[in-house]
User: What shape does this take?
Amino acid sequence: DDARLAEELRKMDGSSYGRYKSLTGDWSFPDFTLTVDRVQSDPFAPPSRVSVRIPADVAELPDSAWHSPVRRRATADYLVRRAYRELKGARLRIDAGGQEVLDRAACQIRDGEVLLRLGIEMPGHGRRIDGRTAERELCERLPDMVDALRWPALDAAEAAAFADTVEDTCALRDRLPDLGLVAFVADGSVLPRRSGVSDLPMQGSAVPFRSPESMRVSVSLPHAGEVSGLGIAEGITLIVGGGFHGKSTLLHALERGVYDHVPGDGRELVVSRADAVKIRAEEGRQVERTDIGAFVRNLPTGADTSDFSTENASGSTSQAANIAEALEAGSTALLIDEDTTATNLMIRDARMQRLVHGDREPLTPFVDLVRPLRRDHGVSTVLVMGGSGDYFDVADQVVMLDGYRPYDVTDRARELAAERADADFAAPAARVIDPRSVDATARGRSRIKRRDMDVLTFGENEIDVRNLAQLVDSGQIIGVGLAMRLLAEGGLLGDDRTLAEALDALEERLEGDGVTALGRGYAGDYVLPRRYEIAAALNRLRSLRVLR
Ligand code: ADP
Ligand code: MG
Assistant: This one.
């Protein structure tokens, strides 16, 4: 059959490009099955899509490589990176991702069978088929790649170590609740990145992380054994320190700590609670009937802030909405950096209170809400704040970064703290979304696309996702769009289901098949997103309507 494909491609050489369409379907090779899923109509259209199924007895993956969901995801990720290297210089493309180990459609393992999804730009001379090149890609490079992915051909020790690393990360994250922690940063971790545009670890001059003794926690992991590091306890943690001393770098690592990292990244043992959400101000976003009453009251416009909508939020109202929506989606840990906050939502000092008081100030600053948020709702906050001492009054622990080294300055900060009266924090009202307002179709067909890491095109809408710090992989953006489509078309939204309940139902649907449950009918790469990013994108969908 593979000979038949080669012959077919040779015969096609020189004929018109559209004839490639006839390749659609299955082609069996001695070691695997190639399926041509979708063929591009011309050389300039998005790449064609093919998938490859390598049976278990050919792949020869040992049980230990895939027996648990965590190891299965890790091994798939290892294979996809191996395939990527093998395909350097080829027209075949596989979506291998960056520093995070995610559940991606590009490689899935089922009962030891390996399923790969790839793109290929079918070669042409202008609008004529270049059959020779196509033959080389599909009948030589592809089988070579499959050969390279068989367990006997792999570096088995490296592959096992990869899965061990991911398993340790997950074990560590799973331990956090028992330990009473929201995050953990292992000693020896390398947090800084190479540059603002490279997520690779900083080389040479990076100062490895070293926890202060008083905050040091030891954890025993399945493979790495005993590791020590900074345990960031539940409650309110303040990160202080002079400018340029590494505060934001630490917080960024915590943002990414909801994901697992590849060996050598430096953040393999930097973990946060899986539900931790980065909060920032986001001037200009729209808000659709979100309850920000805890933060904002008595607006000069008279708007009802417990049911607040705007096409163009201010810095403070956007940040208030971001917090309310993160809580609505189920987050119990907020990560905040002064660099990206609305100051007037965070603090108000005594002098300003004397000048602008009572009903003239609609905002209740976060500093008055952060303790009730913890006490009444069990939500922890990790906050970088180098510019104001107001949070000394409410912090449970204070970490100072000095030359990239953390110190425990809790006692010293407590001496400087003052009494502070908390405000009330009522949990934001839960919303029910109108599924008809979440429509993936444009001109009669489903349209889910992305532009870089900035925009998700969803039906007729463009969603600005630039400010979602924890969308880390381009495939996740598509994953978010597919999840939104499933929420709406799968009957998960509406029906008196709150958004949080709809997200629960979605996660339940994904339990068996993982990410591929999202992608029915979708020809392209996509990656599993978190529910918090799905909710965040929904909340930024301009057509969104809330039923109640
Ligand atoms: P801050 O938020 O306290 O102003 P940043 O986190 O932005 O500081 O860090 C300032 C600079 O220091 C950045 O260029 C960052 O890459 C670098 N940096 C951060 N942590 C380390 C470290 N552990 N070792 C070396 N350089 C670091
Ligand atoms: Mg900073």
Notes: DSSP finds 14 helices and 29 strands in the chain. Residues 2-154 form one domain.
